[in-house]
Each structure stands twice: as structure tokens, then as C-alpha cells.
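Tutorial handout. Part one gives the primary structure; part two gives the three-dimensional structure as C-alpha cells.
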Amino acid sequence: MAVEVLLPKIGLTMQEGTIDEWLVPVGAAVAEGDALLRLATDKVDVDVEAEAGGLFHPVVAAGVTVPTGSIIGWLLAEGEQPPGTAGTPAPAGSGASAGASLPPLDGTDAGGAPAAPSVNGTAGRLLSSPNARRVAGAADVDLTAVRGTGPGGRIVSEDVEEFVTAHPVDLGNPVPPGDSSVSPLVRKLAKERGIDLSEVNGTGPGGRIRRSDLDAVTLAPPHRDAAPPHRGAAPRPGDVLPLTGMRGTIARRMHASLQEMAQLTHGYEVRMDAVVSLRDRLKEEWADSDLPVPSLNDFLLKAAALALREHPLLNATVREDGIHLLDGIHLGFAVAVPGGLMVPVIEDAVELPLPEIARRSRALAQAAREGRIAPAQLEGATFTVTSLGGYGVDFFTPVINPGNVAILGVGRLRDGVEWADDRPLRTRALTLSLTFDHRAVDGAPAAEYLRTVGDLLRRPLRLLL
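Part two.
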């Protein structure tokens, strides 16, 4: 019996997705759990696995954007024909059909003409990675002329770069005579991103600068005393930045958050002397161990989670029938990425020792910045922590992540002054900014939560457990 392949709904806010690439050929036998397609969503790109076995028959072309729940293919038994094609939402088992289709399994196109074979061995389909297609588009390269060196002849971005080097074209920024360390494509991308190639360390053969080296520069955190690097093609006066993809999702969610909630923010100064001292001790004591030394943000994450256990009104969600206090404490933390931000989630954070929180926060942040985080790791936050301290910000008013009733902002660590017996005493302090939904939480309980977080940070040994 034919089994429908539906476009999955990844997360509560996903409305549509783009089939970036089919990962198996038409008619190929797949087993349950095999990767079928690469799906691009407003948050992340992810491989979608088959939920059953059978012969695969896609009915929507790669590159098409369809709503969640759409039928995008079939898994068939031997000799079985697909019930039809589909590109519009349809309930499971309906067999509804509409929309674009791919060539049928007999190797002909929609009009009965033979389908064009690919150059890397898979009839009717050119095996290439999404990154290779983006690089080829930037360099105006026809992928059918590129030899793939990836698995099964798949074309990867390095293949495109090598092709451009071997077949130089006028990209508006030619390689100077005698300079073979930079390909025309890399030179073009560097110009678009405003990167000085003389400051880039090449990791290719003989120190050759590759596209990945530019990406490393683009994604590198800014030095404290240096101007921030360009992130992608720098926006210029007169540009129009479309509200699509991640940027559009952020715009819609933040606008809806402010429209639907009664938000206000408390500011609260916290002494961090004990945390700074404890962290310095841990650097020495754990130097020869595998334990990660927690950052200041890791201490704050743990304190925020423990305080939620004492103040459950802040770990809640507002629904039509009332305020629901949530059982689990799943902590989201904001990570800046090119084009926007992501909020990875540390599940059951209150139950984790501080070194494990440090390990998970680093792994999740790195995965988010590298674009390989799984959608499940971005869902389910019951409370969020966001920091702008690394940018020199003392105080700000964060906007609540829809579905939560509060978010904690963290400012920069700075020198403070406290008076002791008429003598000024230098301290280390930062300001917390708690934005809360006044529909669910009043000002006094919100202030009590901040005081609990401050008490935990003043006696941080309890946070290690």
C-alpha cells in the first residue's frame, strides 16, 4: 500500500518549508530512518528521514516551497504506482493531488520525452550540495560542467571552487598576475563581504585561501578592542532587506509578542565578586581535567533555572483557559548568528550540574553558529536568558519569546562601588533586566525572582551541584 510522505511541521511556528534537495533518486528503495530530503525552514536546514520503507517517488520538485502537511512524495511497493501528485495540504490517507511533479519513474519527463541524465551518474538528477549550488550561483558556474568528488559523485563547494580556479572567468575582480593563492570566486566573495584578503590565513594547499577561510573570518567573534567584522554582504544605504526567512520570522514573532502581552521590565544590580573568584579557582583546579570551566553566562543560566523552581509563576505559559504553570524547566539562551538569532534549549536545566550546563551551552551555541543545529534543539523553552554584556551593554529591555511569560537579560560585567564603614570598596557587578508578562506575573513576584537569582550568585558554590 502506498505511504504518503508529508512535509513535516518542525516546531509550533513553522508554516511552510522549502525542499532544498532530494537525497535519494527516483525509484530508489529506502528503509525506515533513511534520509529522504534536505528541508530548509525559517530556522534551520535539516535532513528529513523516511517514516516507512518502500520505493521512493517524489511529486514536488527540489526548490519548491510548500505548506506543512503537504504530500511531497510516496513510498511504494514493488510494481505499485503512485495514487497521484500533490503540492497542497492534504490529510493523511486522502490521496489528494495537485501542484508540481517530478519526472515519472520510467525516465521520461512530463511530456513523455526521455529525462536528461545527470553528469554524475544519477539519471534525471544532479547530485550537489546546497552550499555547492550557492557557490556556483555566485560564480555563475554551470554545475553540469563540474566533476563531483563527494560520495556517489556528489558535487561539493570545493569542487566548484577548483573548477573556477581551473576555468577563470571575469568576475569583476580578476586575480592579479602571479597571484595563485586566491581563486576568482574567493576574491569576489571577499570583496562582497568587505574582507581584506591580506589578513586571512589560508588553509588550502600551499596556504591557498578557500571559501571556508572567509566563512571563519565572517563568523569569528569581534575582538574587544577591534571594530566588528563584516557579517555576510554588509548592508549599505539604499538597500532593501526583505523580511523573509529568519529575519521575517523574528519580525513576526517579536511584533506578535509585544502586541499580545502586557510587557514591562525590572532592572536589578547583582554582585558578581564571588562568581568571578570561584571561576578563577576552577580554572586552576580543573586545568588538567576534562571538566569545562563554566563561563559567567553558565553561572547565570544555572541561577536562573534554580530560581524558577522557587518562583513557578515565571515558568509558565498563558492560554485561553488560564495561566499554565509548567512542570519542566527548559532553559533557552539566545545566540547571535548571521542574519538574526537562535534560541537553543537546555532541557531540564535545573537538574543538571553546572559543568554539564557549560558543556551543553557551548555545544549548542557552536551548532547554531555553524548552521547544523537540529530543530528539536530549538523548541520547548519555558524561559529564556539573553546577554548583551559582550557588546558593552549595561541594561536593555528584552522581548519575551512567545509562549513564555518572562525573559532575563544580562548586562556587562563592570566595576562597581560599595561603601563599608565609610570606605569605598571596589566590586564586580552587572545588571539583570527581567521582562515579564503582567497578565501572568505582578511586579512584586518578578522582583522576588530577581532577588533569588542575586542571592544564588552571591553564594555560587550551590550552583556547582
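Part three, for discussion. The domain at 1-115 is CATH 2.40.50.100 (OB fold (Dihydrolipoamide Acetyltransferase, E2P)). The chain has nine helices and 19 strands.
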